[in-house]
Structures
1.
Amino acid sequence: MNGRSVGRHVEYPVLIVGGYGYRNVGDEAMLAGLLQQLDRSRVTVLSRMPAGTAAIHGVRSVSVGRAIGALRTHRTMLIGGGALFGPHMGALGRMLPLYGLFAHSAGRRLLLEGISVDEPGRASSVATRRLVSAARRVRVRDQRSVDLLAGWGIDAELGGDLAGL
């Protein structure tokens, strides 16, 4: 693993959360790039379609309905891949900052990897800012996200898109 790898920042086992299992080729490519940096045998992916995610990526996967229970057995929660924080997100996406904050309050290591950040909608703005502030590592995929987070007083590392690894 290179010096940019997320693998050196995790404590296993790792729960990966993102837009997975929605049959979006780009999101699945980002998950594949992220998994290249980790020990797949010690990773679980939260997915809308766990059986498909497990088959495609060769990892353990659980449903969104098991999200809270999955935190009990994982030391790190890694939120990864794509534009996960913005006003365009659906109901589940808008809950992601709260889920991440819950994981953090439960003592889980919190990492944000390969994301982009837009100015969130009003309802999720405070939670998104707290989530990003709580993360041990924030690595974004574009300069615009670096600049937005700098305006919030948060240092973010600029990395490439996970799909391009």
Note: The first strand starts at residue 14 and ends at 17.
2.
Amino acid sequence: MNSLTLPPDWTIQTLGTVCAKPEYGLTETASSERVGPRFLRITDIQGGEVAWDKVPYCRCSQANLDRYRVQRGDLLVARIGGTTGKTFFVRRCPEAAVFASYLIRLRPNAIHDRYLYYFCQSRLYWEHINAGKDERLKGGVNTSSLTQLPLIVPPPPEQIAIADVLESIESAAW
């Protein structure tokens, strides 16, 4: 990224500076019985969507529900396996849900959530993810590598405009 010439009000930051500390999900057993909140796993994310009515449940204390609750605007990153690096942007969560341990949550706090999601589809993102997969057993990604991920950060109005255009393109493709 050093060879890029950016507009004067654009910056290069790390994901660790624009998000709350990335967090691994809850380690628990999925259940088809309604024993607690929905338990979102990598396998429940298909084609960038979640069929929430098919997501299983899990036992979960109130403290864990508070800590691992999925919220609108969260980005969930698959951390291992064939889908390592794939992200799911939570646009809606119809009922209480927590995320499973093979996911990492990114919660944007100094960047627009949809802009970050679309950045996580970019070549720069995937180069970083794929470079890290070669170094680790099972080809995973971890919170340390994610926090060091460099990204281009335009001013907030431009982040929104970029996300709007990309969302329009994505919608038109379907």
Note: Helices lie at 15-18, 62-68, 113-119, 123-133, 143-147, 156-173.
